[in-house]
Please model this.
Amino acid sequence: MLTSDLPFGMLYGALALTALPPLPSLAMSSIVFAGSAQLLAAQLFASATPGFIIILTTLVVNLRHFLYGASFAPHLRHLPAGWKWLIAYLLTDEAYAIAITRFNRSQAGSQGAAGTNAHWYTLGTGLTLWISWQISTAAGILLISRLEIPEAWGLDFVLPLTFIALLVPLLSEKASWMAALAAGVMAIVLAALPLKLGLIAATLIGVLAGVGAERLLPARRPPARRPPARADDALPGEK
Amino acid sequence: MTVWLILIGMGLVTYATRLAFILFIGRVDVPESVRGLLGFVPPAVLGAIIFMGVLLPDSEAVLVLSPLENLRIPAAGLAIFVAWRTKKILPTIVAGIVSLWILQAVLG
Model:
């Protein structure tokens, strides 16, 4: 987990520095603390996107956190408010994927030490990820500010490549494919929309395409059980 | 100054999405239909960014769909294959960027 986090953070730091001064680039990692949203924001800053569109895009990209929060909430219900506010701040994709297995295991198995300490385990995981994210961001900023990288190297291609690595594991069923494809095609069609609104519009159309595909395409199994696994269920380690 | 305001706005909306259900569970329940919608947000966002980054690179605002003229298309194809086999970020990036360099050197 951490091994994949380090290059990701360095990549963010490097890309952010093409659009922002070093201090805001670094600060974004602690103020926002959301990898894919930060990478995207770096690109939006670089193309001089209006601020409210950057914030709106961040909201859309992070909507999936509602699902993490909803699935975490029952496990945190007994904790004081301070714990909830702290764990919410640290609730990234990776922290969620690692911690939810621990919570589920402690719930299913004996209520031993693992069960009562699951929130400490979550805090430790979250803090470790937070520290490595800050350090790798700083490393990316330091490294790239000392190098002159020619445009011909096509380093801006690294962003879509990173998102390919994040997307492919999510494509476990036809409906997710439809969501990704429809949003992709619409992003190109709507690229000329003002204020970079094309990305948000394409995302909404992709979500609708995914829902539509799920309704129309025959399910792999009879719909007696809960609906087929979706992106949030495909996270590593949840099962 | 505005940069900092944008950063704070980004931080607030991100924190809100993480905190909302942790604080208000019991009072609100997520309907299954909303869960369905939210589950499709990640593939849709990622799909949109990938298509834009591969087919409409910032430097040229022209859509080039021929894989022999836009070398990012075959490079992205290889990256998708590597992502599918390894499920890791770094090998995917390396495969995509190195194959782009090789293709540029050979064909460009």
